[in-house]
Amino acid sequence: MTKSFHDQVIAILPKLRVQALALTRNRAAAEDLVQDAVCNALSAQDSFAPGTNFPAWMHRILRNRFISDLRKKRETTDIDDMPPSFLSTNAPHEDRIVLKDLDAALARLPDDQREALVLGVLEGMSYQELAEVAGCAVGTAKSRVFRARRQLEAWMIGEEHVGADRLKAQAAALQRKVERNTQEKTASSRV
């Protein structure tokens, strides 16, 4: 039995809130965004084709509404506006520091990478669903998640740019290989 349109809207609300919070980085703005997106969806419910991917359709409406609102306002929201309870934890002090660093690193990611990471990793969307929501190719969605993960890893271990130490190590290994080849050629030419 298929769910009614309203039942599907109610079921997707928690995921829409997560996506809205990732986009706005402000709890009040996120709730407003979800409410506006649901209003848009209800007014456009006749355009939804039953049997198609309802979550992707709703996430796309929310994302488009966010973009429209950005174009109207042209102002950004600071991550510091987020209530402390959002990152509350009973973990030791070191864990709280790591969470704070992770939150700051997430805020530094480009919007498209942060959105892809949140929807793909935290929400568990498939790359296909993520591509539909973001309006891009599946390969682009995969790339955004991959780049976001790599950049977060680099920032969390103290590198400013992705792979800076890895690139240096690869360059050094390549240099050693060239030197060995040169030495081998010199040694073989003497024989």
Automatic annotation (TrEMBL):
Q: List residues of the RNA polymerase sigma-70 region domain.
A: 13-74
Mention one GO molecular function: DNA binding
At the highest ranks, the source species' classification is:
Bacteria, Pseudomonadati, Pseudomonadota, Alphaproteobacteria, Acetobacterales
Give the record's GO biological process terms.
Answer: DNA-templated transcription initiation
Query: Which CDD domains does this one have?
Result: Sigma70_r4 (cd06171)
List, alphabetically, the InterPro entries matched. RNA_pol_sigma-70-like (IPR039425), RNA_pol_sigma-70_dom (IPR014284), RNA_pol_sigma70_r2 (IPR007627), RNA_pol_sigma70_r4_t2 (IPR013249), RNA_pol_sigma_r2 (IPR013325), RNA_pol_sigma_r3/r4-like (IPR013324), WH-like_DNA-bd_sf (IPR036388)
What protein name does the entry list? DNA-directed RNA polymerase sigma-E/Sigma-24/FecI
The reply on keyword Transcription is yes
Occurrences of domain RNA polymerase sigma factor 70 region 4 type (ranges):
101-152
One Gene Ontology cellular component: DNA-directed RNA polymerase complex
Pfam families, alphabetically? Sigma70_r2, Sigma70_r4_2
Q: Which NCBIfam families match?
A: sigma70-ECF
List the coiled-coil residues: none
For this UniProt record, give its keywords in alphabetical order, as a comma-separated list: DNA-directed RNA polymerase, Sigma factor, Transcription, Transcription regulation
